[in-house]
Amino acid sequence: MSVDFKTHVDQECKAAEEFVNIYYETMDKRKRALIRLYLDEATLVWNGNVVTGLEALSNFFEMLPSSEFQVNMLDCQPVHEQAIQSQTTVLLVTSGTVKFDGNKHDFNQNFRLTAQATFNSTVWKITSDCFHFQD
Amino acid sequence: MKGQETARTKMCSMVKKFQKSRNEDCRDGISVLQGRKPGGSSSRCNFGRRSVPYERSGRGLLPSHFQEDGGNWMRDVREDPRVRYTPYARELNERRGKWRGSRQVLITMCRDPQSRERKMEEDTQDRRVESWFKITIPFGRKYDKAWLMNLIQSHCSVFFSPVDFHYINNRALFFVQDARIASKIKHVRNKIYDEEKRKISIFVTPSVVPYSVKNKFTPEQMEQLKFIMKKRYDGSQQALNLRKLRFDPDLMGHQIEMILNRGNCMVATLQIIESNFPELLSLNLGNNRLYQLDGLANIVEKAPQVKILNLSKNELKSICELDKVKGLKLEELWLQGNPFCSKFPDQSAYVSAIRNCFPKLLRLDGQELSPPIFINVDAPGLITPSQESYKGSETMKNLVLQFLKEYYLIYDYGDRQGLLNAYHNEACFSLAIPLNPEDLDSSNLREYFKYSRNMKKLKDPNLRRQLLKYTKRDIVDSLSMLPKTQHDCNNFVVDMWLQRKTMLCFSVNGVFKEIQGTSQGGVHAFTRTFIATPGSSSCLYIVNDQLFVRDARPDEIQSAFSVPMATPCSSSMPTLSQEHQRMVQAFSLQSGMKPEWSQKCLEDNGWNYTRAGQIFTMLQTQDKIPAEAFKQMP
């Protein structure tokens, strides 16, 4: 591994960790703001069902009951350029338990995050999301 | 929260608080039921049968009647401070004109404490009878209503009748009245599967009285309506003409607003049809501004004989509305004048779309249709949208399945070094398990722990870097070090969650068995996420590979490996064990030799896969293998 790659990975891992915390906190406490973490054409596959586009995502999150997430596993990898055509992308995989309205489920989730550079900072947004109950 | 207080005492304490701080006319600062006159100095409480009084607790709105009863399962949730009930789901606002009644229901206070208590007691009894629950099935729109209800009913030991079944966006909703039934339905959620073998989720939440029940017609109104409908009924034709029903002079004279878009109006109409015109053949609902047909969802039960339906000049925007009355065996249908009719490229597309819905239709918009041709094909346009998109196109789906089949064949039975060709030069791989170091000894996942890159537990940046394998050589080397496995390939659940020209993302969920080492026989569950990019000649190169392994649950272990692995190329090798058969398959795949030749090579080397591979490579470079040993290249 080249040095560049290593530092690259380090930075991205840190960003991924922060992102995960923000994501689940937002989902638990301020669900309506969750949609801001998604890119316009983002896709969500929820237990096999596809939801595409911000409006549909908005409706979908509204419908979900209130949640309480606990993440037990988190892993991330940078996605190679060839696959994503020079947009820094990270694959983020999480797993843990979630309580929807008091019903507990184990879940697996993976995200593809893309970095959107603004003037003085980098904002990570979700381009795709795949959520699956383990049961 | 103080569990045992009744609604009454809590209400009193809140009242006292207000009175202390205000010392004024209690009308001040207290909100009023929408649409009702303010209480003012009257001594009547504004708790009508129509309202559901709510308390303000610091954590949001809680229906007070849930503190009294509701069964155990409600109590757990109540004690959890972070759960908020949102009985006024936002869809209340979505339906035009439907939910006007009960949006902002807050507390009204009155001055006379005695009458308040008395009223509340009456109300408590009412409320106990009327504790309603809303059952939501996300993505329920893709399921047929009758099928779905049957499925839930069959798992539910108590009979229930769903009220106000309807669809909002993609979800299906209905209401039930009893906490007991609601809790039974909640337990069903782990047991029902759709035809794709996916679990169907169900959310159960407490709710306000559903619209149609709340706004039921009075008996007098029903009598009036019946009288008027009888006037519009033509016995000789068994036809009921409800065209422009709202403007019927008699109805208007009695101030009955028959707005058929509203659930309660449609329910009343269907009820009268069911009891008075069971033999109904023809129903005309034209010119009623109908924009959805949810209200007609149970027309098949109420008016099963209907063969002629007129929905012309309404406001139906999508042909999917017709799905809701698909159960009727219609012979004649009138739809002209609806917005969706003009969305078809030409007349024949329109006709065939309608015929997909009603195969036995003979006349459409007054025109005779040519006799129907029955083709055994599922109605294309009207099928669940998710089927298409999450699997991507058929070719992609097949490509992925084929890829996984070959990958796991080599992974389980072959030499994992052979997976080099499946990976991109600069691919990444990592694996994670959700274990704490403390739990290690007791777990079957011990052997994986040293490779686990669970960033939640692992904070050391060096170790993190090390455990992320980069370049295909490194990856394949680490894969070779993992314990030998046997995956249950027949029971994989694959999610394809992204498809682009240069990238394909999919996740595989399933179980596998350890066949060596200290945890032999242990069954683990896994989720493996792949990002791959297509290469030449329709093959895939893995760019990212993330493996998550956890202990399998008892139910997963039981259902694992339940279908015997399909026996490959059976006839030529009757005496081989399953494992050997799989090795032959893998070897054949990797070497390109026909199965018989692969088998010979393996046998000659005592079924030592690696050695057989080395011998093969050696012989091949020495050109000692005849051409006929190799499979024809497609």
TrEMBL record, chain A:
<keyword id="KW-0813">Transport</keyword>
<dbReference type="GO" id="GO:0005634">
    <property type="term" value="C:nucleus"/>
</dbReference>
<dbReference type="GO" id="GO:0005737">
    <property type="term" value="C:cytoplasm"/>
</dbReference>
<keyword id="KW-0963">Cytoplasm</keyword>
<dbReference type="GO" id="GO:0051028">
    <property type="term" value="P:mRNA transport"/>
</dbReference>
<dbReference type="Pfam" id="PF02136">
    <property type="entry name" value="NTF2"/>
</dbReference>
<protein>
    <recommendedName>
        <fullName>NTF2-related export protein</fullName>
    </recommendedName>
</protein>
<dbReference type="InterPro" id="IPR018222">
    <property type="entry name" value="Nuclear_transport_factor_2_euk"/>
</dbReference>
<keyword id="KW-0509">mRNA transport</keyword>
<dbReference type="GO" id="GO:0015031">
    <property type="term" value="P:protein transport"/>
</dbReference>
<comment type="function">
    <text>Has a role in nuclear-cytoplasmic transport of proteins and mRNAs.</text>
</comment>
<keyword id="KW-0539">Nucleus</keyword>
<dbReference type="GO" id="GO:0006913">
    <property type="term" value="P:nucleocytoplasmic transport"/>
</dbReference>
<dbReference type="InterPro" id="IPR032710">
    <property type="entry name" value="NTF2-like_dom_sf"/>
</dbReference>
<feature type="domain" description="NTF2">
    <location>
        <begin position="15"/>
        <end position="133"/>
    </location>
</feature>
<dbReference type="InterPro" id="IPR002075">
    <property type="entry name" value="NTF2_dom"/>
</dbReference>
<dbReference type="InterPro" id="IPR045875">
    <property type="entry name" value="NTF2"/>
</dbReference>
<keyword id="KW-0653">Protein transport</keyword>
TrEMBL record, chain B:
<feature type="region of interest" description="Disordered">
    <location>
        <begin position="30"/>
        <end position="49"/>
    </location>
</feature>
<dbReference type="InterPro" id="IPR012677">
    <property type="entry name" value="Nucleotide-bd_a/b_plait_sf"/>
</dbReference>
<dbReference type="GO" id="GO:0005643">
    <property type="term" value="C:nuclear pore"/>
</dbReference>
<dbReference type="GO" id="GO:0005737">
    <property type="term" value="C:cytoplasm"/>
</dbReference>
<dbReference type="InterPro" id="IPR001611">
    <property type="entry name" value="Leu-rich_rpt"/>
</dbReference>
<dbReference type="InterPro" id="IPR005637">
    <property type="entry name" value="TAP_C_dom"/>
</dbReference>
<keyword id="KW-0906">Nuclear pore complex</keyword>
<dbReference type="InterPro" id="IPR018222">
    <property type="entry name" value="Nuclear_transport_factor_2_euk"/>
</dbReference>
<dbReference type="Pfam" id="PF03943">
    <property type="entry name" value="TAP_C"/>
</dbReference>
<dbReference type="InterPro" id="IPR015245">
    <property type="entry name" value="Tap_RNA-bd"/>
</dbReference>
<feature type="domain" description="TAP-C">
    <location>
        <begin position="578"/>
        <end position="633"/>
    </location>
</feature>
<dbReference type="InterPro" id="IPR002075">
    <property type="entry name" value="NTF2_dom"/>
</dbReference>
<dbReference type="InterPro" id="IPR032675">
    <property type="entry name" value="LRR_dom_sf"/>
</dbReference>
<dbReference type="InterPro" id="IPR057125">
    <property type="entry name" value="NXF1/2/3/5-like_LRR"/>
</dbReference>
<dbReference type="GO" id="GO:0005654">
    <property type="term" value="C:nucleoplasm"/>
</dbReference>
<comment type="similarity">
    <text>Belongs to the NXF family.</text>
</comment>
<keyword id="KW-0539">Nucleus</keyword>
<keyword id="KW-0677">Repeat</keyword>
<dbReference type="Pfam" id="PF09162">
    <property type="entry name" value="Tap-RNA_bind"/>
</dbReference>
<dbReference type="Pfam" id="PF22602">
    <property type="entry name" value="NXF_NTF2"/>
</dbReference>
<dbReference type="GO" id="GO:0016973">
    <property type="term" value="P:poly(A)+ mRNA export from nucleus"/>
</dbReference>
<dbReference type="GO" id="GO:0015031">
    <property type="term" value="P:protein transport"/>
</dbReference>
